[in-house]
Amino acid sequence: MHVDPNEIVTHLVGLKDVRVLYYARRGPVGEIAIEQVHVDPRCPSCEGPTRVKDRPVVAYTDLPFAGVPMTILWKKHRLVCTNPECVVKSFTRGDHRIAASGCMLTTRAAKWVVREIGSGQHISHLAKTLNTSWDSVNTAMRRYGQALISADTKRLKETTAIGLDETLFVREGAFKHKHWSTTVCDVVNNQLIDVIPTRDFSEVARWLHDQPEHVRARLEYGCLDMSRTYNAVFKVVTPKATRVIDRFHVMRHALLALDECRRRVQQVQLGHRGRSGEPLYKARKLLVIKATANDPQLQARLEGLLALGDPDGEVALAYGVKEAVARFYETTDAERATDLLRDIIDQCAKKSSPPELRKLSHTLRNWFDQITAWHHARVSNGPTEGMNNLLKRVKRVAFGFTNFENFRIRALLYAGKPNFRLLDSIVVR
User: Fold this and answer.
1) Are 420 and 115 in contact (CB under 8 A)?
2) What is the tens place of the pLDDT at every residue in 348-366?
3) Secondary element (H or E) of residue 410
C-alpha cells in the first residue's frame, strides 16, 4: 500500500489550520516547513482589512522523530493594516499551539522539557538531545515551568502544617558572601511548596501573608528549628497555629552541650585536645550513640572511662541530661513529658551544673512551649530538612546557580510534585 510522505508529515505536525509546505533532511537534522492558513485576517486594533507585508521564516526546535532531531520552519505572516488612520502599522500573527512568543522551542517540545526537568534531568543533556542551545531550553523551562507552578494552586490548600528552614543559595564575590533562601515545605504531605530568596522576617512574613485567607486559617501547626525569625513569622501572621520544634533540633543542642563539656574537661585535666588513648577521647562516641544506654557492656565501658577522665563528674552529669532529654521524647504521656522537661531545666540551671548545661537550660526554657507542643502535634520539620537535601541535589546537577528564579523553578519542578497533567491545558502566548 502506497503511503503519501506528505500525509505522514501533516499528521506529525497535527495542528488545525496549519499547512505543511515541505519536509527536508539537512544533514543530521530534519526540517518541516509550515505556515498558518489565514482567512481574511483582520487588524487587532480597528478590525479593518489587512495585507501581507512579508513572510519571514523562523526556526523552532521540535521533538526528535525516530531518533532524528527536528526543526520546524514557521513561515509567519507579517501583516499591514490598510486603514491609514489606524495606529497599528504592522503586526505578526502568532499561534501558541506552535510556539510561544520569545521561545525558540515548539510548544510540545517545551512541555516535554518541563516534564524531563521534573524527573531530574539537567538542561545540558536536554539541549544535546534536542540539538539546540542551553539558553533555548532554559528559556522554555522558565516560561512553561512558571506557568505550571502558577496554575497548580492546590498544593498548599490541603496541608495543615508547614515547615520553614533556611538553606544556603550561593556564595558571591571575592569574600564569598553568603546569600540564604527559605524553604517552605508541607510537612504533612512531604511536598515542597516554595523557595523564598531570603530569610529576612519581612519577606518571609509577606509570603505567608499573601497566601489566601482560607489557606492560612487551615494551618494548625508551624514547624521550625530554633530560629527567632521563623518563630516571629508564625506568631505574627498565623497566631492560631501552634509552633512546634521537633526532636532533632532539641537533641542536637543536648548533644552539643555534652560534647563541649567533654572538650572543656579534657583541656582542664590535661591541657590539650583529646588524643588517641586518652579516656575522654575514647569515650566521645559512647557518649552520643543511643546504643550505650541499652547495652550493659557499653555502659560499663563508658563508666570506666569517665571514672578515669572525669574526676568531678561533669561529663557524667551532661551525659545524664542528654539521656533525660531522649526519655522526654520516648514518654508517651504529654503531662509526664512536660514535668520531665521542667526537671531537666531545673537541674541544668543549678549553679553547681557545668556552664554548658546552664546554657542548655536557658535554651530549653526559652523554647519550652514549642518543645512540649511536639507531644500534641506529632509533626516534624524533618521533611523540610529533607527538601533542603533535594535542593542541594538540584544545585549539584546544575553545577551551581547564580540566578535565583532559575533555581526556584527547577527546584519546584523536581521536588514540588506539581500536577504535570495540567501542562496539556496550559497556554503560554
Assistant:
1) yes
2) 999 999 999 999 999 999 9
3) helix 404-415
Relative to beta strand 78-81, strand 90-92 is antiparallel
In this structure, what C-alpha cell is assigned to residue 424?
Answer: 496539556
Question: What type of residue is 175?
Answer: F
**62 to 10, 99, 352: CA distances (angstroms):** 14, 10, 74
Residue 350 sits at the vertex; the CA angle it makes with 369 and 257, to the nearest 5 degrees, is 65
pLDDT confidence bin for 172, thresholds 50/70/90: confident
> Cell numbers at residue 98, please?
506552535
What average pLDDT does the segment 117-145 reach? Answer: 93
Angle subtended at Cα 361 by Cα 381 and Cα 299, rounded to the nearest 5 degrees: 85
- Any residues with CB less than 8 A from the CB of 205 and at least 6 apart, and which? 232, 233, 236, 237
- The two beta strands, 191-196 and 177-186, are antiparallel
**For residue 394, what is its C-alpha cell?**
538540584
| Measured distance CA(155)–CA(159) in Å, rounded | 8
Q: CA-CA distance, 325 to 257, in Å (whole number)?
A: 12
Report DSSP state, residue 42: B
Cβ atoms of residues 158 and 189 within 8 Å: yes
Which class for 301: exposed (0-12), middle (13-18), buried (19 or more C-beta within 10 A)? middle
Question: Under 8 Å CB-to-CB from 348, ≥6 apart: which residues?
Answer: 321, 357, 358, 360, 361, 364
Spatial contact of 9 and 20, defined as CB atoms under 8 Å apart = yes
**Residue whose C-alpha cell is 512536660:** 338
Orientation of helix 314-330 relative to helix 296-309, angle to 10° = 150
SS3 (DSSP) at 338: helix
The whole-model pTM stands at 0.85
The one-letter amino acid code at 421 reads: R
Round the CA-based radius of gyration of the chain to a whole number and report it.
31
Phi then psi for 182, rounded to 5 degrees?
Answer: -115, 125
Contact indicator for 394, 414 with CB cutoff of 8 Å: yes
Q: Give kind and range of the element (H or E) at residue 365.
A: helix 355-366
